[in-house]
Amino acid sequence: MKPIIVFSITLLIALMLEAVPFPEQFVWYRPEWALLVILYWVIALPFRVGVGLAWFLGLLVDLLQGGILGQHSLTYVIIAYTCAVFYKRLRMYHRWQQGVFICMLVSINQLIDFWIDHYLGHAEPTLLIFMPAVITGLLWPWSFTILRSVRRVYAIR
């Protein structure tokens, strides 16, 4: 199977997980699936996957969630660039240490999203905006293992 098809399938699954409806009381506990998948591919294959794909995926998430066009694209590009700069260092860390770094990156994503939403009058200040970052960081070791096995099965280099 060609690498572009595997990328597309993993990103499509991430977008489908982003679209899963959550009950109102659990909306703050939704992980950032699309960002999780794009960060894996940026760490695993930084010369094939980068800010361009992150920008496109951000646009798709904006269209999917009905938000401001470009909001997620902006944050995904910032996060993917940061991850691409530090990919060599990230590969040397243990999975739980990578999870802490991913948690910090997703926290930056959540903070920028909150600033944009607050500026537009759609969000009130709360510390719960960082819960998706914590959940995403906790899911990192398992998602890394799954995506790495997919990459190895299809011999993507």
From TrEMBL:
| One Pfam family matching this protein | MreD
Point out the signal peptide segment. Answer: none
Can you supply one Gene Ontology CC term for this chain's record? Answer: plasma membrane
Q: How does it sit in the membrane?
A: Multi-pass membrane protein
- TM spans, by residue? 35-61, 99-116, 128-147
Alphabetical keyword list: Cell inner membrane, Cell membrane, Cell shape, Membrane, Transmembrane, Transmembrane helix
The UniProt record lists the keyword Membrane: yes
Query: GO terms for biological process?
Result: regulation of cell shape
Q: Does Lyase show up as a keyword for this record?
A: no
Residue stretches in coiled coil: none
InterPro entries hit by this protein: Cell_shape_determining_MreD, MreD_proteobac
Protein localization? Cell inner membrane; Cell membrane
What the record says about family reads:
Belongs to the MreD family.
What is the annotated role of this protein in its UniProt record? Answer: Involved in formation of the rod shape of the cell. May also contribute to regulation of formation of penicillin-binding proteins.
**What protein am I looking at?**
Rod shape-determining protein MreD
Species annotation = Marinomonas hwangdonensis
